[in-house]
UniProtKB/TrEMBL annotation:
Source species of the chain: Acetobacter malorum
Domain of life assignment: Bacteria
One protein family per Pfam: Hint_2
Limits of the Hedgehog/Intein (Hint) domain: 246-387
Lineage: Bacteria, Pseudomonadati, Pseudomonadota, Alphaproteobacteria, Acetobacterales
InterPro entries: Autotransporter_pectin_lyase_C, Hedgehog/Intein_dom, Hint_dom_sf
Listed name of the protein: Hedgehog/Intein (Hint) domain-containing protein
Entry-linked Gene3D superfamilies: 2.160.20.20
Amino acid sequence: MTSGGYASGITTQGGSLNVSSGASVDKSTASAGYINIQSGASGTGNTVAGNQAQLNVLGGTLTSSTVIAGEFNVQNGGKANIVAVSGGVLKDDAATVTSATIGGSGSANIISGGVLSASTVTNGGVVNVDSTSKLSGETTISNGGQLILNGSAGNGSIVMEGASSLLTISGDTMPTNVISGLQNGGRIDLVNLKNVTMTQTTSNGIDFLGTDESGKTVDFHLNIPNANTIGYKIIADGHGGLYYEVCFLPGSMIRTVNGDIAVENLQIGDPIVAFDWKNNKDVVRSVVWAGKAHATVRPGLPADEAGYPVRVLKNAIADGVPYKDMLITPEHCLFFDGQFVPARMLVNGKSIFYDTSITSYDYYHVETEEHSVITADGMLTESYLDTGNRSSFHQEGTVISLRSTVRTWEHDAGAPLCVDRAFVEPLFHKLDARNNMIGSPCSSSANAELIVDPDLHLMTESGATIRPIRREGQRYSFMLPANISSVRIVSRASRPADVVGPFVDDRRMMGVAVADVHLVAANKKSLVTSHLQAVKPAGWHSTEWTDCAWTNGDAVLPLGDLTQSGMGILSLNIRAAGPYLKTDAKPLLTSIRSA
């Protein structure tokens, strides 16, 4: 296609479409073969959707591109603005990519001096930035996304959001990027460090010593503002990581052979009374490690993710258990009938609740010779289990060597970890029923207002909202304009743990369950099944079902070239939806709009 040329709605099934300087191509799809955007050429709303396909920006500029499968290559100074990657590979080779969202099975490689600007990696996506390339603006890692850095990575900032966000730092050169937003469950892995020894945390970040893979002593710095007040920790298992972790708050009274001692006063070597539940007897175990850190709550997140401590009121479990109010972190486990149950699954808003009056606090770890059932405030609970997230930057008491072996719940726990609803729900209701007996001052969260209407609608690549033109039972129908290569299925979304109860160990945002999808265009009815494939587009939850899949409230549905011949009717069979919390937050995915 030569200068001045224009094409729209083309689908390549093989061969090459070359767009020269001064020409443009819009709303076209590479299903196989190549679409090449040469220097000086441009395009909007194009898609690469086949494993053998490539969309190549060879010095030109593309806007609002979608990558479902195959390769999207931006090189030779090319520019790509607003890119949605749910599968396949985005490669930025000495070019610039701005406002990209990489999720699902998608990945991105930033190489040879490439720049990634103001982008998000989420929901299974992976971004790898080589040592010559850099980040610009704010890069967000959220909800299962992974960002891998192999060097200094420029001066862009990194924001970590979501309980499973992962920043991996490979090599011996630390990034200078400002890192913020690390929350409960998020982590930083320092791949090439061994036997890490923390030195200090300051208002400017974390400074620590360690040994690299060759045995050389190294001194590194992570640029995490106010790290000394937020409570990050570094693991020492040959990689590295920063976590919030299960722990006690100050004033928790730990049972020892010398009586109950406040957790903050325990020292390495102190003898603790542990409960051998298999033989129904007490045993003595020594403290082999004690650590302390500080946490600051992040308001605006769900209470279990924000970092609020859980308060278990006096007598909430049984008469005299605990014998005073108990304060622990949400993931800390309590012991019932041979099982460890996370405190967050027992929160009833009355006798066991998130204490939102506490927004900043110290917390403590206590490790015994082996993972143990110990007693705190008269309540059976757990000691610390090093599953690869030990704090080493502020160790209390006598310094001892860290273990090199990471332990697991499956093989090393003092009792099984149980999140099974069949066990936890009856326990939850039993404890909830004690509320009237202990006179709890807190109101219940069980009466939260629910909404059944999913507010289901579609959004186009340009950001236009499409409401259903009709609904017949579970089937919603939408009128689509021509040349739409994908839509987003948008709805309300809530977490089962909030709607059903905390005894349900499912904290995913659930939108609607979509079964069969049909598109009628040009008198032809087509079945759309991308959401039912093993590798799903961004915004879909993996499921054991083969005929239905849940959205997270904002899910991409690729349509390919099905509407290139004209308008169409998209029909969705919604197998399940809601109820939803009236106050729930927005969907997870970042909105993708045209420039």
